[in-house]
Write a structure and sequence with these properties.
The protein has 67 residues and is an alpha+beta fold. The chain is built from 3 helices and 3 strands, in the order βαβααβ. Helix content is 42%, strand content 19%.
Length: 67
């Protein structure tokens, strides 16, 4: 299990910044934008290897379940 940055959100931020630069903004004038959304990942194969049974409500909360 772990938390990580949302790649979808990161690509959106990159697109917005690129659009501003292409419209003439200087990169040094753009504000720093931090990730505000994180994704919760669960790797079931690793959990099974360690003998950990994860409850279904926990799996329902996960943004991505890797099998």
């Amino acid at each position: 299990m772990g938390y990580g940055p949302s790649l979808e959100d990161a690509y959106r931020i990159v697109g917005i910044c690129t659009g501003k630069v292409l419209k003439g903004a200087r990169p040094s004038d753009l504000p720093v934008q931090l990730q505000t959304k994180v994704d919760f990942f669960v790797n079931l194969q690793t959990a099974k290897t360690f003998g950990i049974d994860l409850p279904p409500p926990l799996l329902a909360l996960a943004d991505e379940v890797i099998e």
